[in-house]
Amino acid sequence: MTGPDKKKLYPKENIKTICFISNLPKRPNVEIGEYTYYNDNKKSPEKFYDNIEHHYEFLGDKLIIGKFCAIAEGVRFIMNGANHRMEGITTYPFNIFGGGWEKVTPTIEELPFKGDTVVGNDVWIGQNVTIMPGVKVGDGAIIAANSTVVKNVEPYTIYGGNPAKFIKKRFSDEKIELLLELKWWNWDEEKIIDNLEMLTSEFGLAQLK
């Protein structure tokens, strides 16, 4: 028994709505872990990069997504290039229109910068979720469909809403601690195959100790 070929764009050649996005052409400042997939029934999942908005290489912010994440269609990542200066009377970006207005072009240091956007491993992001700049989503988290995530999400928690708020922890604190130590997503393929039943059942969770 072998798992899907992690080097193929489409893990199932007859299904073109799901792809392993780590196998898309590389893009600067985007890092995506193995087996993380994007599912889109409306347009080709190869268009995943279109969902990363306002991402300008000169700003240097990164989008980092871990392994074994499930990303539904319509998920958007808003990056730091969307930010406007906020310390003045107005937030209007005069400089981008020229005509002499460029004299108030801000330096990179003057623009709000919230850092890299980081999604951990084994994260499930529901349909039409928006993740704002600099947000950190912990391992094993679930983001409900149609949510807007504006603050960090702790590991193995469920968040939802606009703005997304904590709903509940998936497991007890003790189980979460054990899962974060387990880091099953770093196992080799053979070990994952040997432990599929444990990874996908309540029985397996009960064996953690």
Write a brief structural summary.
With 209 residues, the chain is an alpha/beta fold. It has two domains: 153 residues, 3 Solenoid (UDP N-Acetylglucosamine Acyltransferase, domain 1), CATH 2.160.10; 39 residues, no CATH class.
Explain how this protein is built.
The protein is of the alpha/beta class and 209 residues long. It has two domains: 18-170, Hexapeptide repeat proteins (UDP N-Acetylglucosamine Acyltransferase, domain 1); 171-209, no CATH class. It has helices at residues 173-182, 189-194, 196-199, 202-206, and strands at 18-20, 30-32, 37-39, 52-53, 63-65, 70-71, 76-78, 117-119, 124-125, 130-131, 136-137, 142-143, 148-149, 157-161, 164-169. The strands form three sheets. A seven-stranded mixed beta sheet has the order 1-3-6-9-12-14-15, with no helix packed on it. Strands 2-5-8-11 form a four-stranded parallel beta sheet, with no helix packed on it. Strands 4-7-10-13 form a four-stranded parallel beta sheet, with no helix packed on it. A hairpin with a 2-residue loop joins strand 14 and strand 15 (164-169). The mean pLDDT is 94.
Q: Which short descriptors sum up this protein?
A:
single chain; globular; four-stranded parallel beta sheet; alpha/beta; seven-stranded mixed beta sheet; 209 residues; 2 domains; UDP N-Acetylglucosamine Acyltransferase, domain 1
